[in-house]
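Reposting from the mailing list since nobody answered there.

I have sequence plus structure tokens for a pair of proteins and want to know whether others read the tokens the same way I do. The first protein:
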Amino acid sequence: MEILWFLFAVGLIAAVVAPWVLRRRSGGIRLVEPGAPDAADPLAYGFVRQELLDVRMPGPDQDLVDVLDVVQRTQDWRAASQLLAGTPKEGEVRWQRVQAFAGAASLELAQRPGAGGAWLREWRAQAPKDAGGAAVHAEFLVQQAWRTAQVGTDEFRIILEEARTVCGEAALLAPGDPVPYIVELAVARGLGYAHEQFDQVWAKVIDRNPQHMGAHIAALHYWCEKWHGSRADADRFARSAAARAPQGSLLAALPLFAVWEHLPDLALVRDFYGTQVVSRAMEGALYAVHSARPDDPMLAHVRHLLIHFLVGAQRWSEAMHQIVHVDGHVGALPWTMSEDPAAEYALYRALAVAGYEANGGTPASLPH
């Protein structure tokens, strides 16, 4: 009996893995030794080496990079405060910068327990009325809860309760800023707010910016099956937001994020990425990308998720087109769910390059 189960497991693995390594006789992917003449090389396309990929953010923000370097080198918070003070409250960029500063402080603390992230503690102590500092502190606590404590434990709840308090302080300091309430969406997920309580927080977000893509992604997490909703709830939330989205809004891509949140660990459907639900969500995301402003700060988030799905669907040329626009930065879903985001992204990039070349593509034929 054991041998039957073994053979079944081998067959199942082969059914899942084979499409990645063996394709049709014409234009198929085949494995070769590294360094072989036929090996696909991402570096030939000018892509960034894996060890140099920036895991801090989804796309370029040179002002943020410069300030982060100054803050971490000098441990002086003032440059961060000035940058946030000059960042419009209602936009997506402020939310991304708050996340980046909080993540930098959290990572520093993990690397140097008790000493890392001292600049954030000084920021809060020396400027308690600074709205930017309060928002960063709240997001820092949320990240700490997920980084250092087990979900559902007393420690986890204590940290999130403190985060909720700081969210309230940040909201009072910046009445028109949706960011404190977006941070609270994560608190609501961790503490298990009732639907009515969550809706009250969500109403405060959309009152301030009804088209905020980052806020919609944060809210979608709450409505997922693994948290406090269901697959149907998440799909309903995503499709409703996409239907209301004005021309040029990236909210049309939200259903793809809902699919990602409910992606099975093992796809047993023969053509999972070609199913109506998945293909329709991909087309919606592609439409959103093509119609969005080139400088939309959330555009990179959608492109990164599209790479995952386009590679899965073996749509190599389209995947390569997305990679061209985001290569160099990997601080976005789905890569950040991995312990090594750069390695995860590099794997999908290599598959895209291999598939692109197996079907006649070359560095010269790829538009930049």
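The second protein, same order (residues first, tokens after):
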Amino acid sequence: MRLAVNFRDRADLALVELQTGQSIARNIILISLLTAIVLGWLLAKYTGKAIADPIEKMIDIADQVGEDSDFALRIPLMEDQHTEIGKLTTTLNQLIKRVAQYTEELQKAKIAAEAANRSKSVFLANMSHELRTPLNAIIGYSEMLHEESKDLGYDDFLPDLERIQTAGKHLLDMISDILDISKIEAGHVTLYLEDFAVQQLIDDVVATATPLTEKNHNALKVKTAKDLGTMYADLPKVRQVLLNLLSNASKFTNKGTITLQVQRVTKIPNEWKKDTLNAEKFASAKTQYLVFQVKDTGIGMNKEQVKHIFKAFIQADASTTKRFGGTGLGLAISQRLCEILGGGIYVKSREGVGSTFVVWLPVHVSGQYL
């Protein structure tokens, strides 16, 4: 009996020890788990910071280089350059250095190209007299020979002499366009400002343009507002712009109608001036403007062609040059002259329907846009 009691006591003691051991084991596991979690969190935080900080620095430096074009900036190097982050830092620094070199080379090339272009423009501008004088002499002598041949009855010579005159005048027009654009690019444009009656300007332009419009059997209509008053500007340059537009309309219109409309306004629509060189100055400008609109019923242009018509030596497309001829400088010259006079030019066109060119110029030109 006593033996059974002892055995039971030992069993109970063993059971208590077992439960105690299990409790200790659970506590050890729990502490180990908590320790692992804390160590894992600390390790993740340290590792994340070690990765995130260098990457944030790289992004900041890259943003500065992109915004300020400061290629002297470099990403700070890490102590251990053999890690992936260290290799990335080195590679990005090398990339910034190469971009800096390429940018410097491009800048030098741009400066050289601009200098060469200015030299070309200055040369052509200075060649104006040398190119025009002999050509005018050729045209003049051919006209004299034409008159003498006509008086003497040498009618067989007349067609050839007329071809010489036509070719000479055409070449003179082309040379004049090239010299004009060269003078503008070289900054050799001088404004001779004067007061003149706008209606008289319109009458002179219409008288000159009428033979051009009639050549392709077109009708020229003029619509002017009452009391256009006077204008203070460079009369020859304003006339040149209007004649360029009317000549252009006459060239690309056949058996149609060309309309010249003139009015005086106090405000220019934003759509007209969005691509104008002096657009930012119009916001504060308080002045009156003269608006000249040249509308035709010719071949018109699509949106892609309209994008290129004001570029020098470029017409709407290659077939236009073959079919209608010309240097492609008339509209480029007109646009730049308008901007020099403190105004601008706008075009709206629809293929197969026709085009409308709008020129607006200050009533009083100050010459500040030269």
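Reply #1 (J.P.):
I read it the same way you do. The mean pLDDT is 77.
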